[in-house]
Structures are given as structure tokens and as C-alpha cells.
Amino acid sequence: MDIDIFTLFPEWFEWFFTQRHVANVLAGGSRLELVNPREHTPLSAGQVDDTPFGGGAGMVLRVDVLDSALRAHYGVDPVELRERRRVIALAPSGRLLDDALVDELAAEPAVTLLCGRYEGFDERIVEHFASDVVSVGRYVLSGGETAAMVLCDAVLRKLPGALGDERSAQEESFSAALGGDPEYPHYTRPAEYRGWRVPDVLLSGHHERIAAWRRERSRERGAAPDPPAAGG
Ligand code: ADE
């Protein structure tokens, strides 16, 4: 998979690139590239944003700056780019990222992520350059960078070779193997701690009963409203 991330803060991603599953997929032939629009701005003094027409707080990423950066990187008019690859603008108002969208994106050969900053993008960037607008939750982050990391983390761990054990991604929360339900609870040694015992069935060695127990716990979690705060 080929992912390009357009960000004014490429240094934020240095730590992310060192994470095991990210390093694994990069070693397996996937590509992650960072592009800083500031390096392609046609404006003086590295300007990339401007005050919003109509007034209001904050700064808005300029459409001419993104146009130049995308054009310099891909060598085509960015208006045509979204016919060749998914171009995703990250914004709080977008389609909510869920497991189905992660699967959809993991099947794409090439994706471009646009990270907004400050008050976000000039709307013409979204209208004319982006194929999708994606949100990682209904709250406002200080920029699209952490949202891009969330998206990449979720997508890359679905790729072959990302995780040590391929089963980890197959039977996990919201996967088809669990009927879209959250994952069942896990336990490890010690089997008893401060009087808190691991469910007997998990110690039984009886694979069918264990599978049935896990399926049932997943279903319960899926049917339940949002879990209460721990200890509450
Ligand atoms: N940029 C700022 N907030 C965001 C969010 N919640 N999701 C995606 N991009 C964002």
C-alpha cells in the first residue's frame, strides 16, 4: 500500500514510523511518505494559511497552497487525482472512521491523507481535491495529524505481515469473525489473583466450549449500551 500524508508537521510522525507494525509493513513493501505543503507554497515567507472571509477566529489552510503541493508531488492537476487514488481530508465533520471503512481503505492500493490545521481547510480543497472527508470522532483535535496516525494505525495493522500473528487481526473487535461485535474479554496468568478467578471454561482446554463462551461474551458486549466508567 502506498500512503502519502500532506502535513505541516511531518516531524510528528517520526515516532509513529518506528512502531513495530508500521515498520513491518514498510519492510514488506508498503510506502509511507510525508509531504510538507509549506515547501511548495507559491506565497512568500512560507505562508500556507490565511484569515477566514467573513471574519472569525483562527486561520484556514489555503487552496492555492494545497493545489501547488499536490501538483508538485503528483505532477497532475489535483482535480484529477481523486480519480486515481483516494484523497482523504481529515476533519471532525467527516464520515466516522469505523472497522468497515478501515477494511475499505486497507484494500486500496494508494491513499493520500490531507491534514488540516488551525480552523481547517478552505472548503474548495474538500470540494475539488478530496474524494472523502473522514473524522476519527465527534470532537475537535488541534489538527489532522493525530487523526491521520489513528487512520494509518488501524489500516496498516490489517495488512499482511503487520502483526506477528495474523490471527490477531482476524478475530478482533468489530471484525466479521465476531459478527461486528466487540472482542471477548482476555485473561492471563495468574489464574487467581486477590480472589479474582479466571472463568473456569478458559482453563478447561475444551476448545468448542471456549469458542462458544467467547462468542457469547462478544454478543453481550455488542448488545450492551456504552460501558460504564471502570469502577463506577
Ligand atoms: N481534525 C480535527 N479534528 C479532527 C477529527 N476529530 N477527526 C479528523 N480530523 C480532525
Characterization of the model:
- It contains ten helices and nine strands.
- The chain has 232 residues and is of the alpha/beta class.
- A five-stranded parallel beta sheet has the order 2-1-6-5-7, with helices on one face. A two-stranded antiparallel sheet has the order 3-4.
- Strand 5 (86-96), helix 5 and strand 6 (110-115) form a beta-alpha-beta unit.
- The radius of gyration is 22 Å and the shape is elongated.
- The model has no long low-confidence stretch (mean pLDDT 93).
- It binds adenine.
Please name the defining characteristics of this protein.
232 residues; 17% strand; 9 strands; alpha/beta; elongated; 10 helices; binds adenine
Please provide a brief summary of the model.
With 232 residues, the protein is an alpha/beta fold. 34% of the residues lie in helices and 17% in strands.
